[in-house]
Amino acid sequence: MKLLLSKKEKARYYRRLRIKIYLCFATLALAGVGAAHAVLNLGWLNIGQNPVEPENVKTEQFAIWCAKDRCAWIDRQGITGAPAPLTEGSSIPIIKTEGGVPAGGAPAIQARFIKPIIAIIEGVANLPIRVNEYLFNARLQELTAVGINSDKFIFSVRFEPTEKLFASLAEVISRNNLKNFEYIDLTVENRIYLKQR
User: Is residue 118 classed as helix, strand or coil in its secondary structure?
Assistant: First the structure.
């Protein structure tokens, strides 16, 4: 059935149709401008790509956690932050591991090991030695402090070392030439073992 319209009705019909078409074009144009603005100013250029880990995770910078050629800051809870440079001979503790470096905001290490690691790093800082780096072995649950002269002090992270242990270790260091020892083993609670070369 064909609908017959008068000239007046046809004019009104086409006027409404034109208004609807103009509104559709205006809406599409605004949407396009908004999308272009978002892409250029809000960093949405990575849509459809692999997720990128955040580069600006803010954490306390307690130490640098490294695996292979990748490093990140960690805080006193062992949470990773922003990427960090791999430096040498720095006053900032560098902990190297064979594991990985998790994305920012994730724990780098099991929570139970955090307090012993902090106690070791802070205790070693008060000894008359200069540490180049720390080596963390998750399998053995050990943290080795490596001095600038390749001195090695092996600690267990299963327990927190005491102030008395560090006082005894300072005495051992002052009485002995460290070059005569391959390493000093502190993995047994309240015991110090010296491995001669």
Answer: helix
- Is the pLDDT reported for residue 48 higher than 60? no
Report field, pTM of the whole predicted structure over 0.70: no
Strands 152-156 and 142-147: antiparallel
Same domain, 118 and 42: no
CATH number of the structural domain spanning residue 80 = 3.40.50
Looking at the fold, whether 121 and 160 belong to one and the same domain comes out as yes
Buried/exposed code over 105-120 (b: 16+ C-beta within 10 A; e: otherwise): eeebbeeebbebbbbb
pLDDT digits (tens, 9 = 90+) for 151-174: 999 999 999 999 999 999 999 999
pLDDT given at position 153: 96
| Angle CA 132–74–55, to nearest 5 | 115
Question: 32-66 in b/e burial notation, b at 16+ Cβ within 10 A?
Answer: eeeeeeeeeeeeeeeeeeeeeeeeebebeebbbbb
Residues 114 and 36 in one domain: no
- Residue 97 falls within a domain, yes or no? yes
pLDDT band, very low/low/confident/very high, at 197 (cuts 50, 70, 90): confident
Domain count, the chain: 2
